[in-house]
Structures are given as C-alpha cells and as structure tokens.
User: Which sequence fits this backbone?
C-alpha cells in the first residue's frame, strides 16, 4: 500500500478530485496549507509598512491506495494539477505499513 | 429654583448670543412648535450619534487580530455604558453650568446628577422655552461625550488591560471631557474669546486624540510592531468587511453629529442650515476617501483600503469644526486635506514608534487640529490666533490630565497585559472568550 502526498494549487483541487474518482479512487484527505518551494514570496505594504509574504496557500491531498493503483494516481495528479507555471507543487510517494477500517476492523489492502 | 435657572440662562443667552450655542444663525422666535422641532433635532441627531458607537466597535473589531476581537468589543460596550453613567453622575452639569461657575468661566460650580424636566411638562414649566427639552439636550450631548471615549479605545488596542482602560474612560467622560467642553459649549472662557468649533473638531475629536496619543506613548507599542533595527512590521486587521461597515456607520452617524449641532430646527433658516451641514459633511467624507485612495495608489502602487477608511473619517473630522459655512467646493478641499493628513500621519507615528492600531490619532487629533484651523477659511468670525490658542489650551489640559491618570493607573494596577497574555491574545487572557471559536487561527 502506498501513501501519495501531493501539494497542488488550491484552484486545481476540484479538477484533481474529479480525475481521481474517475480512475477509481474512493477516498482522500485534503488539508489547506501554506508553504513555499522554488516559488518565492513577495512584499506587500500595509498602512505604509512593508512586509514579506513568504508563504503561498496550497492544498495538500493525501491518498492511500493499492500499489497497482498508485502509479496511475501519481500520473493523474501530475497531469491534472499542472498549469505550467511556477508553484504547481510536488507529489511524494511513501510506503504504508498498515491500514485499518474503523467500522469493521478489516486490515490490509481490503481496508484501503 | 428651576425658574431662576431659566431666567438666568435666558439673560445670559441674550447678553452673549454665542454662549453655549455653536452656530451664528439668529434664533427663531420661541413658540411651542419651534421648541418641539429643536427637541426633535436633538433626539434624531442623538440616536444617529449613538449609532456611531457600533461604527467604532465594528471598525476596531475589524482592524485588530482575531485573538483580540472580543476584548475590543467588550471595551466598546463598557466605555459607552460607563460614559452614560459618568455623564449622568457629574459630567453634564460640569459641562453646562448655565452661568453658575465655581471658578469663573473655567470650572462649573454645579456638581451633581443630571435632572430631566418632569413627566408631561407644560410649556410654562420647561427649563428653557427658547431651546429644547432638557432630556433631549442631555441625550444629544451625552452621545458626544461617549464618542470621545470611543476614540481612545482604538489606538490602545491589543495590549491594554480592560479595567484600567475603563477607569480611564470614567475619568475622561466624567471630568476631562466635560470640563474642557464647558470652556466652549458651556459658555466658558474659550467661547468668550471667540473660539469657533461647531460640532467638536477640537472639543470632541482632538480631545479623544490627545488622550489616545498620551495613552499610546505611556502604554508602549505592541510586541513585534517595531523591530530593533527600526523596521516597522505590519499587523493586519482580521476583518476588513467589519472595518468598512464600521466606517459607513460612522459616516451615517456624523449627519447627526454635525447636523444636530445646529441646535435648532424650528425655522426655515435653521433647517436649511441643517441641510447644508448634511451635504457638506458628506462631501468632506467622500473627498477624504478619494484623496486617500489616490495618494496610496501613487505612494504604494496599490490602494490601501484601511487608509481609505481612515481618509473618509479624517474628512469628516476636518469638516466638523465648521460644516455650515463652507460651499461644497470648500468642503471638498477641507475634507480632502484631511484624507491627505491621514495618509502621511500614519507612517509618521510609526516613525516615532507610537503604535496606534487603527489610526485614531491621525484621524481625530491631526485632522481635528486641521479642521479647527480651517474654520477661518470659510467663517469670517473666526480668528486664526484664537483657534490656535484654543487648540493649545485644550491640548495641554487633556495631555496633562490624561497623563496623570494613565501614570497613576500604571503605578497602581499596571495598564499593560503581560507579554505572554499579549501573545496569546486578550480574548483568552483577559476574558476567556474566543471571538471566532469555530475558526482555526494561524497566529
């Protein structure tokens, strides 16, 4: 089982969710985050005083999936979330040790 | 006793036509209808100025951080209510001795609670047949007193303790404000000198501004506002929608603030004057907003909404000393300069390391001084020398008395919350109550 973590531009979220459900993803976790990468911040002025905006809002998607679906998920996210401009984000793939369905107690790939 | 007071007042009013009144229009021949219309003006003007309390509350709530919103709102509820109490207990009679001076033209000799006329009073039983009901006069003037206190609360936000602030409010509204106001509107020595201040650019706005300035200096800036290397760090407001709502509400209330200060509505001349005042007041606000918009766009490359809000208010403060005599063109200029004062005044205070959270000092003090001076531009009865003299007299009085109160409070209870409390936010540390408990906070 794999955990796929993707940070994407917030306005791409709906599109990515739609594309993932189309390839069979039945669950995901979404968090609003802020961060920076190569896309650096900028300065603004509030009441005559300058300040740096170092962080940019992003959406973080976390999906746990079977190994065979994982590659497809990474591919789908990458294609759908890409705008071609700086700040498109990153995707990480991690191994998952165990998954448990709370309602039934099932474990392993059946619980994903 | 009441009749003697009435006769004394009438006699005084006849001898000094300007005493206690803000305008130059000849008074209408007293009749029942004139009295009724005057009273109505005070009642309507009064509740419009009352609504400015919500304007201040929303403006301030929107310009402080989320973690301090409950505190700001509590301060506003508290200061307004305490002003009502202090003005009743001692303020009203200190402000309007009606000729009974303790120290001639300087300190009222009447120390006691405000008293209204009796229920169902008849024409021959009213306190002043040439004026309006005492209750309406009290109501109207009370709102001005409370407005003065509101000015102070914005500047000192996000680091002041609740009860010391409220105690200061009681002294401000019970003693400081009424005493200096008696010098002009109560027929005191400033009025005698020919000082003109129609609705209170000095008497209300600069007084609040001086008290705020003194407090801000003694209190010190917020943690993190000024870095050791001299950098000014912006601390953004939590809700600009509330701040804008508050500004528009204040703008609305100002029609009562300035319009009601005509103090008469029973003749064609008087109500025509009230109409002029509404129009000039509005124009000055608009001009202040536009100038702030243009100047921030030019100086910073982007319009700063908070400056536009301040600009409109500064325009209003600027016209407050004389909203009757200017033409629309003059109101535009006077209000517009108010807007400019704010755009330059805010960074100036930061340069001096005086932390004014909402811009109350540029809006009310700086623009208040400008508005007071600007009277000479459109009112030939005003003299620049007298205006300056009066500004200084009131300024020194308010700064000295405010400083004394702040320093005494600082020595006895302390006026500033602890560093940890300030960082956690006053809502939790002083009140234990989150303003937005459902929203997760970033700071």
Assistant:
């Amino acid at each position: 089982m794999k955990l796929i973590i993707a940070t994407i531009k917030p306005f791409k979220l709906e599109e990515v969710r739609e594309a993932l459900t189309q390839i069979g993803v039945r669950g995901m976790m979404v968090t609003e985050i802020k961060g920076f990468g190569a896309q650096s911040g900028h300065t603004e002025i509030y009441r005559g005083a300058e300040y740096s905006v170092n962080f940019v809002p992003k959406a973080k998607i976390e999906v746990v999936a079977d190994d065979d679906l994982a590659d497809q998920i990474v591919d789908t996210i990458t294609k759908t979330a890409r705008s071609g401009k700086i700040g498109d984000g990153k995707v990480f793939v991690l191994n998952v040790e165990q998954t448990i369905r709370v309602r039934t107690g099932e474990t392993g790939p059946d619980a994903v | 006793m009441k009749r003697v007071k009435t006769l004394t007042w009438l006699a005084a009013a006849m001898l000094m036509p300007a005493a206690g009144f803000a305008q130059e229009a000849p008074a209408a021949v007293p009749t029942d209808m004139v009295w009724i219309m005057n009273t109505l003006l005070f009642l309507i003007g009064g509740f419009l100025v009352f609504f400015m309390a919500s304007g201040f509350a929303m403006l301030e709530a929107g310009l402080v951080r989320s973690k301090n919103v409950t505190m700001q709102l509590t301060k506003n509820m508290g200061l307004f209510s305490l002003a009502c109490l202090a003005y009743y207990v001692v303020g009203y009679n200190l402000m309007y001795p009606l000729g009974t001076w303790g120290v001639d033209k300087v300190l009222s000799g009447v120390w006691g609670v405000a008293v209204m006329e009796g229920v169902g009073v008849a024409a021959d039983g009213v306190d002043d047949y040439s004026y309006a009901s005492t209750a309406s006069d009290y109501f109207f003037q009370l709102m001005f007193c409370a407005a003065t206190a509101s000015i102070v609360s914005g500047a000192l936000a996000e680091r002041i303790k609740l009860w010391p602030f409220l105690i200061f409010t009681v002294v401000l509204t019970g003693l400081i404000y009424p005493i200096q106001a008696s010098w002009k509107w109560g027929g005191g020595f400033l009025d005698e000198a020919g000082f003109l201040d129609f609705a209170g650019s000095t008497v209300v706005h600069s007084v609040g501004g001086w008290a705020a300035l003194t407090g801000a200096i003694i209190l010190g800036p917020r943690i993190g506002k000024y870095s050791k290397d001299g950098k000014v760090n912006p601390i953004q407001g939590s809700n600009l929608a509330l701040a804008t709502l508050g500004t528009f509400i204040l703008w609305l209330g100002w029609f009562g603030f300035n319009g009601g200060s005509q103090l008469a509505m029973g003749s064609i001349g008087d109500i025509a004057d009230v109409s002029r005042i509404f129009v000039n007041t509005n124009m000055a606000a608009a001009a202040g907003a536009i100038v702030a918009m243009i100047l921030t766009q030019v100086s910073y490359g982007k319009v700063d909404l908070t400056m536009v809000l301040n600009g409109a208010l500064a325009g209003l403060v600027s016209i407050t000393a004389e909203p009757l005599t200017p033409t629309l063109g003059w109101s535009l200029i006077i209000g517009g300069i108010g807007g400019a004062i704010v755009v330059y005044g805010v960074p100036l205070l930061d340069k001096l390391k005086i932390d004014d959270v909402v811009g109350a000092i540029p809006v009310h003090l700086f623009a208040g001084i400008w508005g007071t001076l600007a009277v000479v531009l459109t009112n030939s009865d005003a003299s620049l020398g007298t205006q300056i003299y009066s500004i200084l007299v009131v300024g020194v009085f308010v700064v000295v008395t405010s400083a004394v109160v702040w320093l005494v409070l600082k020595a006895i209870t302390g006026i500033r919350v602890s560093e940890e409390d300030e960082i956690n936010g006053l809502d939790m540390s002083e009140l234990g109550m989150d303003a937005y408990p459902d929203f997760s906070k970033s700071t």
Summary: The interface with chain B takes residues 44-51 of chain A (CB under 8 Å). The first strand of chain A starts at residue 2 and ends at 8.
